[in-house]
């Protein structure tokens, strides 16, 4: 696993120029393609579908993919983006996440759909994606496998969805269990 840069006073552009690998959370479609301009070092990214579209459009502006909001669209976009990003986690809200792992060692691309359980009594959706990503990264830093990291991310997002605050105050490693999230392997054409 490559080193992941912690928050510093440096900008992402400075980190890219120094060839540091990092995890990129786009936060907005207008910023989604920014690190792709440097053509290196983006090891991990967690775009939503809108941000994934912006990334794919930047990398292949002449390729038209119909906006259908389904798995086929996500996989076609992810295939383009996986040429520039090693590991992509596409967040799909109440549909779960799709991970796309572009293993440079053997050239294979593996996609997995991790569906999420429905949650009642949602208090607030702000912060759920950030909590998912934080949980996933926490699992990575603990050297858990992908399905554990997704499970930790799902639990973290659930805490955020059930909380009136953007990020729950009581979210910690003590409140999260380490289990495996179930997934379905998808075929990428």
Automatic annotation (TrEMBL):
Keywords: Kinase, Metal-binding, Transferase. One of its GO terms (biological process) is phosphate-containing compound metabolic process. GO terms for molecular function: hydrolase activity, acting on glycosyl bonds; kinase activity; metal ion binding; pseudouridylate synthase activity. InterPro entries: Carboh/pur_kinase_PfkB_CS, PfkB_dom, Ribokinase-like. The keyword 4Fe-4S does not apply. Residues 46-166 form the Carbohydrate kinase PfkB domain. One of its GO terms (cellular component) is cytoplasm. Pfam families: PfkB. The keyword Metal-binding applies. Signal peptide: none annotated. PANTHER family: CARBOHYDRATE KINASE PFKB DOMAIN-CONTAINING PROTEIN, ZGC:136858. This is Carbohydrate kinase PfkB domain-containing protein. The lineage of its organism: Eukaryota, Metazoa, Ecdysozoa, Arthropoda, Hexapoda.
